[in-house]
Amino acid sequence: MSNEQQVRIYNPTEEFKKNAAVSGMDAYRALCKEAEDDYEGYWARNARELLEWKKPFTQVLDESNSPFFKWFADGELNVSYNCLDRQVNAGLGDKVAIIFEADSGEVTKVTYKELLSRVSKFANALRGMGVKKGDRVVIYMPMSIEGVVAMQGCARIGATHSIVFGGFSAQALRDRIEDAGAVALITADGQHRGGKAMPLKPIADEALSLNGCDTIKNVIVAKRTGAATEMKAGRDVWFDDAVADQSDVCEPEWVSAEHPLFILYTSGSTGKPKGVQHSTGGYLLQAILSMKYTFDIKPDDVFWCTADIGWVTGHTYITYGPLACGTTEIVFEGVPTYPDAGRFWRMIQDHKVSVFYTAPTAIRSLIKAADNNPTVHPTKYDLSSLRILGSVGEPINPSAWEWYYENVGGSRCPIVDTFWQTETGAHMITPMPGATPLVPGSCTLPFPGVQVAVVDETGTEVPWGQGGILVVKRPWPAMIRTIWNDPDRFVKSYYPADFQGKLYLAGDGAIRDKDTGYFTITGRIDDVLNVSGHRMGTMEIESALVAHEKVAEAAVVGRPDDLTGEAIVAFVVLKGSRPTGEEAKAVIKELQTWVGHEIGPIAKPKDIRFGENLPKTRSGKIMRRLLRQLAKGEEITQDTSTLENPGILEQLKG
Ligand code: WT7
After folding, report:
1. 420 lines ligand 1 (CB under 6 A)
2. C or N terminus of the chain, fewer CB within 10 Å?
3. Residue 644 pLDDT class (50, 70, 90 cuts)
4. What's the CATH number where 441 sits?
5. What's the CA gap between 610 and 603, in Å, rounded?
6. Is 515 part of a structural domain of the chain?
């Protein structure tokens, strides 16, 4: 991004800088230096200032059982208390916590006092069912106030929640319930999206009818669509009935800072999804600190993160971070294109949103919509309430960045391009809006206190300007603690022997600008795809495909896509003969539907191609590099001399 191209740099205005939490680069560097000089002292100071502890900690970082690090382990606190009671006790009881906008446009506001009451009742209901500290509770819910209440309710009694995104299939839900060994499932009759009502409870019922879910004793069902719903006697209860007679006072369960607040399943490069286990104290600390530094959150801000609570972004920047800061936030049930593609802009205007956080894939689709229909162009709306814009989930291409900056932010609002992961819990590399000069397409510099580097295969730092592997050099408070049920996989995945177990491997490639040291993420270095900001393992999709009776073999790769970032391309060998024409079309449909049913609609391959075989080396290894070129529609320029069956390439061209 330096030299050859002319890069425009966007500096914060003096006025913005004046009131910013991190005001100017000197302030940013001072924070980094504080952490550099006394790493534990920096995090401990923040943990004392930003969290309310029932029992103060005396230990900070415990590295004795590396890489199973502990932070503030002898301290005790409760996350729900820190999010809700703390605001009410500080006199913010009547402040609006959540502005919920339904798919239909209906708006419901909940104050901190009301939210505390609703969470307490729900927590009491869970306790009444015998759910206790350390039990796992799976939540399979739409974007709703009840969804947030369910998560906070679990946190209040020390139950570990595991959210399964409402777009996942019965099979995917079953796998996660079984792996977590959950005792209760919280769901809804259905969900509204884009003007349509979609079922949830029937999918939950299907999951529970499969093997491995008999740990579930209670199912709590929120009423959302009013669809006719079967309730199994002795197991199922309506959400409203469960909370009806409960007290609105619920003593929080005080837990160790290391207590698992949640498990969230995410895709890896091999095998089944991994249950990323997060802590209580360290996690909440960085959720709050990033709200303060990255989003510069102030008491009168209206914050809107458009993610779903089913992803980590929704955990940290909907359920926990904003509430722990006493912020007013938007929770949105619907989709960006209903009733039209001006929905986001209209909502920003109506609710006077000041900090807006969304994904590049949404921006790209709204650019396209605005190009086709000027009435949904952001400049047609009053977006003057905005002061900060955020981006997350995948690299944002410079042209989308500039469009977002000019048309949504009115060339006035800094864009924070936040790089992080399910495993990191909170932002890792991101601009500070009142300090960092912005360069479109770069997530710029590490969050104060986070120590990242770009290294080669041996773990040695490479010079700026040279691409390499992104690692984190020191444990950080909000980091993943382990993979639920699989500590060996945790060590192998994130602290590999290649780096003597000393560096956290993010799984992304990165390059630092040769002059500024700014980071640009160059994409995953493993077999993980990023489709519309959703993480998908190629192996997971391959396993789903080969589970179909007609499929003998399958290989899945990604291909760049203008709208979704990456698109899924599957190369398939059928057990019978290779289909062509209409027959091929029918099998493609069948396989897409099948994958949708096995994993969820987001995993459906966009492009499926059939061959009599896959390109393999003489030793039988699938040559994925060739498949990636074929997927892009490129001529094969690579060396194919080790290829056993070159004739197959012709069949696999798009
Ligand atoms: C992967 C993590 C936690 C955010 C939601 C996704 C990619 C994420 C950026 C960014 C470039 C990004 C990486 C990362 N990614 N944010 N700002 N710039 N790439 O969480 O599902 O755990 O995916 O998303 O590849 O490893 P996730």
Report:
1. yes
2. C
3. confident
4. 3.40.50.12780
5. 18
6. no
Establish if 498 belongs to a structural domain. yes
Please name the residue whose Cα sits nearest to atom 23 of ligand 1: 421
Count structural domains, the chain.
2
Q: Say what the pLDDT of residue 2 is.
A: 44
- For residues 297-325, average pLDDT: 98
CATH number of the CATH domain containing 547:
3.30.300.30
Determine how β-strand 96-101 pairs with β-strand 107-111. antiparallel
Which of 262, 364, 404, 420 to mutate for ligand 1's pocket (most ligand atoms within 8 Å of CB)? 420
Q: Is the CB of 305 under 6 A from ligand 1?
A: no
User: Interface pTM (ipTM) of the complex?
Assistant: 0.99
Is the CB–ligand 1 distance for residue 535 below 6 Å? yes
Q: Please state the residue numbers annotated as binding site for Mg(2+).
A: 546, 548, 551
- 312 Cβ inside 6 Å of ligand 1: yes
Atom of ligand 1 nearest to the CA of 430: 17
DSSP string covering 408-433, please? Answer: ISTTTS-EEEEB--TTT-S-SB---T
**Each residue of 48-106: pLDDT tens digit?**
999 999 999 999 999 999 999 999 999 999 999 999 999 999 999 999 999 999 999 99
Is 361 contained in some domain? no
- The answer as to whether 363 is a domain residue is no
Percentage of residues of the chain with pLDDT beyond 90? 93
Using the mean position of ligand 1's atoms as its centre, give its distance from the Cα of residue 115 in Å: 31
pLDDT digits (tens, 9 = 90+) for 212-231: 999 999 999 999 999 999 99
Q: Looking at the structure, do residues 46 and 173 belong to the same domain, yes or no? A: yes
Rounded CA-CA distance 289/297 in Å is 10
335 in helix, strand or coil? coil
CB 538 within 8 A of CB 527: yes
* Each residue's pLDDT tens digit, 122-136: 999 999 999 999 999
Per-residue confidence (pLDDT) for residue 5, from 0 to 100: 57
- Any atom of ligand 1 within 6 Å of the Cβ of 397: no
Does the pLDDT value for residue 3 go beyond 60? no
What is residue 109's three-state secondary structure?
Answer: strand
281 lies in the same domain as 233: yes
In this model, does residue 414 exceed pLDDT 50?
A: yes
- CB-based burial of residue 9 (10 Å sphere; 0-12 exposed, 13-18 middle, 19+ buried)? exposed
Contact 546, 554 (CB under 8 A): yes
Question: How many whole angstroms separate alpha carbon 355 and alpha carbon 568?
Answer: 32
- How far is it, in rounded angstroms, from Cα 163 to Cα 182? 11
- Tell me: do 229 and 139 sit in the same domain: yes
Annotated binding site for ATP: 393-395, 417-422, 508, 524, 535
Domain, as residue range, for 57: 14-335+419-507
Same domain for 80 and 216, yes or no, is yes
Segment 421-467, tens digit of pLDDT = 999 999 999 999 999 999 999 999 999 999 999 999 999 999 999 99
- Residue whose CA is at the smallest distance from ligand 1 atom 21: 535
Q: Which ligand 1 atom is the nearest neighbour of the CA of 267?
A: 21
Are 27 and 81 contained in the same domain? yes
